[in-house]
Input
Amino acid sequence: MTDVNHRLSKTLVNRYGRNTLFVIEDLTDVSFDDKNLNTWNKAQNCELRSWAFYQLEQFLSYKVKETDSFVLKVDASYTSQRCPKCGRIHKLNRHHDIHEYICDACGYHSNDDRIGAMNLYELGTMYVSGDTNPRFGSRKID
Ligand SMILES: [Zn+2]
Output
């Protein structure tokens, strides 16, 4: 996994060049679907995935310094439940079994991972527009 994370972070930094804002989900305390990793027990899988994401984040955060880029960790809430076209947030619009998001309000549909990426892009846009803590859903009043 270490080699994969080195190559992945290097590829991302080389591909997007200078002054890039990389937006990643803050996956602290997020649980994952175990169906694709069944050779180890649940605790081992969870530990491996947490460690792998943490390592990728660390490598990326280190490598972006060479290109004056930046890694922004955002609240992962609703990034897989929000329609990027109309903004509706509805958990049941994501269909895990077919990896598809289908909006019941506007009909927009796409691959569920793509929907997540589109929503991260939106959060990044909110950030560069001045929102220092971009997120979807309810906000905590400071
Ligand atoms: Zn929609």
The pocket of zinc ion is lined by residues 83, 85-86, 88, 103, 105-106, 108 (CB under 6 Å). The chain has a mean pLDDT of 88. The beta strands are 21-26, 70-75, 94-95, 100-102, 109-111. The chain has three helices and five strands.
